[in-house]
Design goal:
This protein has one domain. It is built from ten helices and 21 strands. Helix 3 crosses helix 7. The two termini are about 35 Å apart. The structure holds ligand 0WD and calcium ion (CA). Ligand 0WD binds next to helix 3, strand 12, strand 14 and strand 15.
Length: about 400
């Protein structure tokens, strides 16, 4: 599959008339990417590689270490014996992060400053962003109902992309009580399925009382990964829920020999909850969700997802492991897959490759510090790019660091 990307003949840009899916000619907006046809088939993939990691503590302070990394610990017997673990427990004392605070790319950029101070090397890559943003782009061909806006800026010959939080806040559906509770179940599951250090380093008390403390989504552990698709190299950071067993210490690790290298990414696990599957409809909904789990985990090189299945009332009944690389096949083969929304991982990646290439080549790289807006309007077929007069959103500490002579 790897090798020279094949460019689809459909041009992407500059008001070129596009043939819509109905065969009618439509005028594309300026600087736009047609989502239904933009593809680079069989793009070369780079194996994701962790370059650093960082943690937010329970007060949302940043630490350039693995202090908020969790370890998976959940026994099926414990789940079964309890007759179902109540995931609503402690909802009234949930410590929820204020998601109206705009953090831009701050955690990621400051972790790069820390890394680069230590290595004395600039972190290479064309695009630097959060994993969640790339997940949105990867899923876009199959996920057309929600609009979004991104801000993008070239700086120091790299393209930085963030989500526009004011747009997100202004357009997101106000969560009703039930969806607030359901999202709490996800965090509660993370809490009861993990411990703060390896099992043999935790006291029995810490292990057994892990479900008693208030749930918080303030602390997070993030991995920063170099990866790439087609001609575009990326540095992406994403939250990692836990490790399966342990995280290899880079100091003890051999990374110049692939046979001896204990890759930290191989140990990571994504946690999710889903309702227990009782009907074809449940199965079809679950398979759509699995595809998003695949997209999210695949981008960061997370090999495993563990899904906690809960009842309609939020009682955890069981959990199951899914290997990330097997998910597209599972969804494709399943007789439950909804014929109207057949996901295709290969096609989604072909779109992402075209999309990244479009971003890299459309936003003028000579115009450093000019903020561009990337827009997707709900149900439209285009991603558009336009120039703004907004101020750059890059953290001043990062800008200052990159401006210092030793980095050049
Ligand atoms: O442009 C920005 N300012 C963005 C910042 C866009 C996307 C994410 N972020 C932030 C997140 O708050 C987080 O600190 O980046 C960091 C890493 O995020 P990510 O891994 O790129 O985000 P994503 O892949 O969308 O989500 C992963 C997890 C979620 O878990 P589930 O199981 O639902 O995928 O990150 C958490 C959430 O647990 N998360 C959040 N938690 C609280 N508030 C938020 C949020 N706004 N967004 C993601
Ligand atoms: Ca999760």
């Amino acid at each position: 599959m790897a090798g020279r990307p094949h460019f689809q003949s459909t041009p992407w840009t500059n008001g070129t008339p596009q043939v819509s899916s109905h065969g009618q000619r439509q005028q594309a907006p300026a600087l736009s990417l047609p989502i239904s046809s933009a593809r680079i088939r069989g793009p070369a993939m780079r194996q994701p590689r962790e370059v650093t990691s960082f943690s937010y503590d329970n007060n949302r302070s940043l630490h350039f270490d693995d202090s908020s990394l969790s370890y998976f610990y959940l026994l099926q017997d414990d789940v079964t014996a309890s007759g179902g673990i109540d995931l609503s427990a402690g909802y009234n004392v949930f410590k929820k992060r204020d998601d109206t605070i705009d953090e831009h790319l701050d955690g990621l950029l400051l972790s790069l400053v820390d890394l680069e101070k230590n290595t004395r090397k600039k972190t290479t890559g064309d695009i630097i962003t959060w994993r969640g943003i790339v997940t949105k782009l990867l899923c876009l061909p199959y996920s057309r109902n929600d609009g979004f806006e991104l801000n993008a800026v070239w700086f120091d010959r790299q393209l930085f992309i963030e989500e526009d939080l004011p747009y997100k806040l202004a357009t997101q559906r106000l969560p009703d009580q039930r969806s607030e509770l359901m999202s709490y179940w996800g965090y509660k599951f993370e809490q009861i399925a993990t411990i703060p250090r390896q099992w043999n380093e935790c006291s029995r008390q810490e292990v057994e009382s892990r479900g008693q403390k208030p749930v918080s989504n303030v602390a997070q552990y993030c991995s920063v990964v170099k990866t790439g698709l087609g001609d575009v190299r990326m540095v992406i950071a994403g939250e990692v829920d836990c490790v399966w067993d342990y995280k290899p210490d880079p100091k003890d690790n051999v990374d110049n020999d692939p046979k001896l290298f204990d890759n930290p990414l191989d140990h990571y696990v994504e946690l999710k909850t889903n309702r227990v599957i009782q009907s074809d409809r449940d199965a079809s909904t679950f398979e759509n969700k699995l595809f998003k789990v695949w997209a999210q985990s695949f981008l960061l090189g997370v090999p495993k997802a563990i899904i906690g299945f809960r009842t309609e009332q939020g009682y955890l009944q069981t959990f199951e492991e899914f290997e990330t690389q097997k998910i597209p096949g599972i969804v494709k083969k399943s007789k439950y897959s909804n014929p109207y929304t057949t996901w295709d991982g290969v096609d989604a990646l072909a779109f992402l490759a075209a999309c990244l290439q479009w971003l890299k080549t459309t936003i003028p790289r000579a115009e450093e510090n000019v903020v561009w807006k990337i827009r997707y309007l709900p149900r439209s077929d285009y991603l558009t790019a336009s120039k703004t007069d907004q101020q750059s959103f890059l953290h001043p500490g990062f800008v200052k660091w990159r401006g210092e002579p030793p980095m050049k």
